[in-house]
Automatic annotation (TrEMBL):
InterPro entries, sorted: Aminoacid_DH-like_N_sf, Glu/Leu/Phe/Val/Trp_DH, Glu/Leu/Phe/Val/Trp_DH_C, Glu/Leu/Phe/Val/Trp_DH_dimer, Glu/Leu/Phe/Val_DH_AS, Glu_DH, NAD(P)-bd_dom_sf, NAD_bind_Glu_DH
The protein, known as: Glutamate dehydrogenase
Gene Ontology biological process terms from the UniProt entry: L-glutamate catabolic process
Residues bound to substrate: K83, K107, S363
Gene3D superfamilies: Leucine Dehydrogenase, chain A, domain 1, NAD(P)-binding Rossmann-like Domain
């Protein structure tokens, strides 16, 4: 794929400090130029519609009150109510949330689901907080956002550091403020209370499906393909499990405790069982040997799946990457400064806004089911999600061929074109 196309992104600035918002904007600018996007739509899309910053006083277990800062950024709602996860992490910041919100707009447009984009975050370290503290924090955040959230306004979901438990608290707290049970206000809920079959594994499944689609374009065979995966949380562990079940050889995995390597392939069922029995960490896993986490990204594998945080692939390590294919499970794992290097090496990249869009796709199914008051079977969810992922991949691939550009720029072109066309029909400015 990439080897036959011409690179079209601006060269990195000298001394560039990685910033996900700048990375998002530099790709957006290239796609806008390809499309000949009009100035008004460009100005509307380059900044978020709404940015909310809240102060959240929370009683801690030791009796003192700690004040947390939280954000919700709504990037755009021209395609429908805004959608996007909530991140709990000590490194959350407003620029990051703004980039993540814009990526949600592009992602929903790429898979053609009727949502705009948003993202939320709270600066906190969930690994050091008790369940009670996290519940009080989540309820305080939901209360502060009661005029932002709504089943037809803005619909949160899980992201790093959050999962079904937090989504259940959000649903309960929001329902209390509106005086009726409001299942469709949030997705990624536990199954018993309106969650969808298939949501937990949906993002990893989409990563696996788009990886196989890209491998087929590159004539890569499943049996001979080795993989390294950074991050072993929801996205990383499900990607690993589903790729392992398909017969790919997962040689390296990592989490915050370190990286682990087995040249003969890691038994992912054993790795997940070990993690579940050891406080969610792989530390001490006997089925692989510890390695330097920095070396995982440049290890001798065919496919690299970054599935943890932003900006892990930069101009500094990109020259040493050996994989032929990068499939971005995480949002924004590749800084824009690395793009020309990766492209120049002929490495294909299935970009985040395509590769990890399986999660929001099944969130959309959950929202539809909540509104219908009807539950879909696992087969129905899987078949529909796989079809959407495959069609989105083929569409992005065709655009990359048409404009002779990378899959990343092609995905932005598909997304921005849909949003811009909708603005033309709806008017309003
Ligand atoms: N959940 C979803 O449905 C979706 C998530 N994403 C994106 O996928 C990425 C991961 O999210 P998710 O899996 O939900 O988050 P989780 O919190 O479930 O998992 C994050 C994983 O990354 C690990 N990690 C964190 N920092 C590092 C690091 N520096 N090096 C290696 N591993 C690290 C964590 O380790 P440890 O557990 O040891 O702390 C954990 O294994 C994020 O970019 C998120 O935005 C995108 C689409 C949907
Ligand atoms: O499931 C969702 O609604 C959003 C998931 C998310 O935050 C993401 O795709 O980055």
């Amino acid at each position: 794929m990439a080897a036959t196309t011409v690179y079209k992104e601006p060269a990195p600035k000298v001394g560039h400090t990685e910033n996900p918002l700048e990375s998002m904007m530099s790709r957006f600018n290239v796609a806008a130029e390809i499309l000949g996007l009009d100035d008004t739509t460009y100005e509307v899309l380059k900044a978020p519609d709404k940015q909310v910053i809240v102060n959240l006083p929370v009683s801690m277990d030791d009796g003192h009150v700690r004040v947390f800062e939280g954000y919700r950024v709504v990037h755009n709602t021209i395609l429908g109510p805004s959608k996007g996860g909530i991140r709990y992490d000590k490194n959350v910041n407003l620029d990051e949330v703004k980039a993540l919100a814009a990526w949600m707009t592009w992602k929903c447009a790429v898979v053609d689901i009727p949502y705009g984009g948003a993202k939320g975050g709270i600066i906190c370290d969930p690994s050091t907080m008790s369940a009670g503290e996290l519940e009080r924090l989540t309820r305080a955040y939901t209360n502060s956002m009661k005029d932002v959230f709504g089943p037809d306004r803005d619909i949160p979901a899980p992201d790093m550091g959050t999962g079904p438990r937090e989504m259940a608290w959000i649903m309960d707290e929001f329902s209390k403020t509106v005086g009726q049970t409001s299942s469709a206000v949030v997705t990624g809920k536990p199954l018993v209370m309106g969650g969808s079959l298939g949501r937990t594994e949906a993002t990893g499944r989409g990563v696996m499906v788009s990886c196989l689609a890209a491998m087929s374009k590159l004539d890569m065979e499943v049996e001979n393909t080795s993989v390294a995966i950074q991050g072993f949380g929801n996205v990383g562990s499900w990607t690993a499990k589903l790729m392992f079940d398909k017969g790919l050889k997962i040689k390296g995995v990592s989490d915050i405790s370190g990286a682990y390597w087995n040249d003969n392939g890691i038994n992912i069922d054993e790795a997940i069982a070990y993690k579940n029995m050891h406080a969610g960490r792989l530390d001490g896993f006997p089925g692989a040997t510890p390695m330097d986490p920095n070396e995982l990204l440049t290890s001798e594998v065919d496919v690299l799946v970054p599935a943890a945080v932003e900006d892990v692939i930069t101009e500094h390590n990109a020259p040493y990457i050996k994989a032929k294919l990068i499939v971005e499970g995480a949002n924004g794992p590749t800084a824009a400064s690395a793009d020309p290097i990766i492209y120049g090496k002929g490495i294909s990249v299935v970009p985040d806004i395509l590769a990890n869009s399986g999660g929001v796709t099944v969130s959309y199914f959950e929202w539809v089911q909540n509104k219908q008051g009807f539950k879909w079977s696992q087969d129905m969810v899987t078949e529909r999600a796989d079809r959407i992922m495959t069609e989105a991949f083929e569409k992005v691939y065709a655009v990359s061929q048409k404009y002779n550009c990378s899959l990343r720029i092609a995905a932005y072109v598909v997304a921005i074109d849909k949003v811009a066309q909708t603005y033309k029909f709806r008017g309003g400015y």
